[in-house]
Every structure is written in structure tokens, then in C-alpha cells.
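Hey, quick one: can you model this chain's 3D structure?
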Amino acid sequence: MEIIGKPRQLIPRWHTSRKLSVLHFPPSKKISESPKVDGDQFSSFRMKITIEEWKANKNYSSAVELVSKSFLLEYEDSNVIEARRYLEDNLEIRPSSIKSLIQSSARPAGKSNLYPTSKNDIYKIIRDIKLSLKDHPKDPLAWNDIAFYYASLGNNEKADKCLNIAYVSSKKNPIVARAYSRFIIHQGDPEKALDILSRSGDIKANPLLASANLAIRSIYNIGKIDRKSVLELIRKYESSPEWISELAASMATISCQHGSIKEAVKLIEKSLASPTENTIAQISWLRHKKYIEIEDAYMPEITSLESTVIKLYEAGDYSGFKDSLLELHNFQPFSERPIIDAGYISLVVLEDPGEAIRIYERNQHITQKSFMARNNYVVALLEDNRIIEAADQFKDLHGLIKNKSDLAVFRATSAMQLYKIGRHEEGRVIYESVAEYFQSENDLIHLGRLYYYFSLQEKNVDFDKSKYLLGEANRILRKIDDTKELIEKISLRLAELQ
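Sure thing. Here's the predicted structure for all 498 residues.
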């Protein structure tokens, strides 16, 4: 499972300006006063400089810069109030991204945390933002918003151009930098993501930049982590816990992985003082992985879709798990993991290849670019006996192969196709060859899944071999965490064969 099984860190969420405040800074135990920071840290946010620029030249651009920076720091003084009033004048002609900064009523709630998935709805939003940008071409939040929607359509080239404009026009804005770094992560270039963050301010002084930098370095094993500076930054911001929530949770995860449980517990306490949605998801993942134990009574009331996904998986509610994965995708519509897992659960556990096909066809922006999503789509077509349609997909699937593991999976899927058209001997040879490869790589998760599918194909060809392969799949998968959904399915099949 992509969401449950793979390592997790607090890679920054990416949100549009209308949803940013409630999703990244939810109203929970927040301290109302501004952070207690020294002069160097203020410089990292350019707060003093921004105030001076506003005083010297009171125009739309300087007002936007000051109000957005004050939002980031929850800083308030007479200059900020004056700039906000300046923007409130002629409010009806201001772009929506600016309205969301100065109108608390713009904050969404409940289901509105999800983003539209209909192409018509998304294109309408893009048109509206374009109209706004004609009048306000220097609005970095609007450029961020339009990039988000382009990315949700799979148009990464346009998304990159728009994010670059937002970044260049507001390079010292950590929110823009975090969004851009998240996008670049999805393009497979974590080094560039780190460079974007480092060019946006002092990583050692800005907790928003520091948390993103730490998470990316940790998950991709890039460079040495400066634990001392991270812990010092967390201490400096203890009086304003909302600013260090993700940083503390990220550092806690590293501490857990290194066996420093006492340190991790202290950091988790700090992270939960005023957590973001992403923090709650991380703590839920740590609990699921048995790194820590926290009773529900001590968890904040803030909800996280990803936490719900984990709970439903643990409860064995796989239908609800699938539905929540689809909601999670609507929450971050450029992310492929929820779609891959939702299709997999529909196909393997719920035994509904038709639903898997619908999921992948509704999300072509993922299926067309992700090898695993496209492979699962082909398997679903084969399971649904749509053999010709599946055959038409193999050329494109082959073009998405990035490594030897992908190639082995591709070969296993081609073996399944051979069984479907009656060429059992050829399919068996390929399956056995791929099994040898996974064994040599000690890739138990792929080996277990391969034996399971190999068993299904042999069911009507060689009953004894099918039963043996099913037993091997069961033996192998029981050695691995987060495979219970398949183990349960195998156990049922084995019981039927007795």
C-alpha cells in the first residue's frame, strides 16, 4: 500500500489561498500574540523591510506584501491595519486570493476542504483567476492558485511556469516556496525542491522553511540533518507552537526512527500544542507504525483525511478505506498515491475490477503518467476480461518504466495476459523468471503479490500448483507490515481449498 506502507514525512501540503489559513493554521489552541522572535528571525520573514516599503510607497503591491507577511507571522500593528484597510477599499474588484486574506468569512469548512475534480469546474476557476490576474498581475497568491489547478489537471508545464512567476515575484514568501517545493517533489527532483527553499530565506531561522527542508532531506536521504539547529529553532518558537508544529513532528519522526523515543515524545507534545492537518496525519502514521502510543483522548480534535484513511484500514473497512482515499486525492489532486491505492483495493480486496477501471479512467492525469497506476489499470482490464483493451495499453505502459522493478512488474502483467489468451506455458515461464528476480532483490512485497496473481492464473490450469503458490504468498506476506488486506484475502481462498 502506497499511503500506509511507505515511509512518511511532512512534505508540505499545497493549498490554494482560500483554503490555506484553515488547513495550515487551523483554529486550535493557538496563541494569539505574535511569535517571540529576535531581529535576525524577523529579517528572515522580511517583516521590518516590508513595513518600511509600505511606509515609503503605499500602493497595492506593498499592501499585499505587508498583509500576507503579517498573516504568516500573525503579526499585527498600526501599519498592518492601515494596509488591510487600503485593500478593503474597492473590495469587490480585488482578486479572491486577497479577499481570503482579509475576510475571515472566506475560510472554508467541512467538505469544502476538498477541491473540485470536474474538468469543467476547474477550467472555470482557471478562467476566473486569469481575469483577476489581468488586473493584478503581481499577485503571487493568485499565481499559486492557478498553478494548483493546472497541476490538478496534469498540466505540469503550465503549473511550473505559474509557480515560477509566484516564486520570483515573492521569493521570500515561505508559503509560495513550500508550494513550489511540493510541486517539484512530484516532478521527481528533490534537490531542486531544496534549492527553492534555501533561496527563500534562512532555513535555520524560519520554521516553515525548516520543516519542509527537514522533511525532504529525511525522506530522500539527502545530506546531513542539522539536529542541533532544528532543536534550537523549536525552542525559540515554543511560545508560538503553531509555527513549529510540523517541524517538531518531522524531527520526532526522525527521533523515532533512530530509537530516541524520549526525545520523540517531547517533540510530539510540542507538535500537538497547535497542530496542522499534516501534523495530525504524521502522528497517526507514527501510531500505526507502532513507533509511539497515544490514546485518542490526548489527540487534538482537528481532523485529517489521511488519519481517517489509516483508521479505516486498521479497522478492515476496505470499502470506506477506498472512498476515503478518493477524498484524500480530492484534497491533494496532483498526488498519485491515493489513486493507486484506491484502484488496488477495488481490484484485489473488493474484487471489483469495474470500479478500479472507473477510478483510473476518471483520473487520467494520474493514470497517463504513473507506471503503477497504469499497470493496475491494465490488470483491472484483464480481470474484467477486456483483453483487447488491455493489449492496447501495453505500449504506453512500457513507456512509463523507470527502473528494473517496474520492468519486472510489467513482465508479470504480460504473463497474466498470456494466461488470459490461453498461452499458459509462456506465461508460467515469465512468472517464474520474475519471481527469481524479486527473490534476488529480497523484494518480498512484490514477490508475495506475484505469487498471489500467479496462483489465480493457475487455478483452472493446475490446481495443486495454484494452492502451493497461494501458500507461498501467504508465508511471504506475513513477514511484512501493512499487507493484512491481502493476507485476509489469501486466508479466505486457502480455507475454500481445504
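One thing worth noting: The chain has 30 helices and no strands.
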